[in-house]
Specification:
The chain is α+β, with helices and mostly antiparallel strands. It is built from seven helices and 14 strands. The strands form three sheets. The protein has a six-stranded mixed beta sheet with strand order 3-4-2-1-14-13. Helix 3 runs parallel beside helix 5. It is globular and about 45 Å long.
């Protein structure tokens, strides 16, 4: 059985319901994980999703900001929702499919503008969030699991448009990359996207500030799909749906896909 998973920071699921429906109709992933939904769970517009066959949803919602959800064609039941870094933020939810695959959907804090926790509390929260993720995975080793989401870190030199210019910019600083690497190692997670696409520039986010994002192409790979090492060999068909960044009223993120033969 092949399960295709898509992850997408949608930047308001209610505002951008039309392009979520477009993605579901045209790409038809088995599971869609959304971040930054900016909606209480009970106000997520589920009717349109259900009309396309996505009749199962779990969500950790929050009014106005944060929020994560998982849509599925087949039954999925919630197995956990975690709150890290002493933040009451809806940034994680995990569900399990009938085949036993657990899917974690994360939205890691962006970290503010200054990469210095002594003057920027948000940066400290981001580092603490990753540390708590690491400690959880060390304490409870995941298996037969996929982790997806907007992790707000582009770890490799070819995950950003200019490595030298961005080493002191939040999302590509050495301390963030080190924290992310520790989190990945703690859960024996494999970066499926880079397993499939090992070389070359690869982005999933382009700033709204760019007058012509496509021509400038100053992107970063902030969105990730990982799998535990026991199932990483089943992952394939990774891709970023770059055209979605240019859809009407787009998110600044593009959807990221991977498939698993489980």
């Amino acid at each position: 059985m092949t399960v295709t998973i898509c992850t997408w920071n949608i930047n308001s699921v209610r505002l951008r319901e039309p392009i979520v429906l477009k993605l579901l109709a045209e790409e038809a992933p088995d599971v869609l994980c959304l971040q930054e939904c900016k909606s209480p769970a009970e106000k997520i517009p589920t009717e349109g999703f259900a009309s396309l066959g996505y009749t199962h949803m779990i969500a950790n919602g929050q009014k106005g900001y944060n929020g994560v959800m998982i849509l599925s064609r087949t039954p999925i039941h919630e197995v956990s929702r975690k709150y890290f870094a002493n933040l009451d933020h809806a940034r994680h939810i995990a569900g399990q499919l009938e085949n036993g695959l657990t899917i974690h959907n994360f939205y890691v804090p962006a970290g503010g503008d200054k990469p210095d926790r002594t003057i920027n509390d948000k940066f400290g929260q981001k580092l603490d969030y990753l540390t708590d993720m690491r400690d959880w995975f060390n304490a409870e080793k995941p298996s037969k699991a996929v982790l997806v989401g907007d992790l707000n870190i582009a770890p490799r030199e070819d995950d950003v448009w200019n490595h030298k210019q961005l080493t002191k910019i939040v999302s590509h600083t050495p301390i963030e990359i080190d924290h992310l690497a520790q989190t990945q190692a703690a859960g024996n997670w494999v970066d499926i996207t880079r397993q499939d696409i090992p070389e070359g520039q690869l982005y999933s986010w382009w700033s709204y500030r760019a007058r012509d994002w496509d021509v400038a192409d100053k992107g970063r790979r902030l969105d990730h799909i990982w799998a535990t090492d026991d199932i990483a060999h089943t992952g394939h068909s990774s891709r970023v749906l770059r055209p979605a960044r240019g859809w009407e009223k787009p998110s600044d993120h593009a959807p990221l896909f991977a498939s698993f033969d489980i």
